[in-house]
Predict the structure.
Amino acid sequence: MEPPEVLDRLVELATEAGIRVRAAQPAGTLESGVCRVRGELWLILVPAEPLDHRIRVVADALRTYAPTFLESRWLPPALRTLLDEAL
């Protein structure tokens, strides 16, 4: 899988897991990451950041906030390897 496809698939998984994913324009020191907004988990991605960094942020969010969801899903081997690497 090419990196843009990896990011797209990870974002899709995050959305399916109930994590709201939003793109944000860089403003000051804003970086991609996870936050809570009115009790909901949001994943903010800054498109200006390097692709590999955004992939890492989404993968970390899935591992941290949706491990049971990931265990119950079939994932392409490339994604499964990426998500299992940091465990």
Summary: The chain has a mean pLDDT of 92. Strands lie at 20-23, 33-37, 40-45.
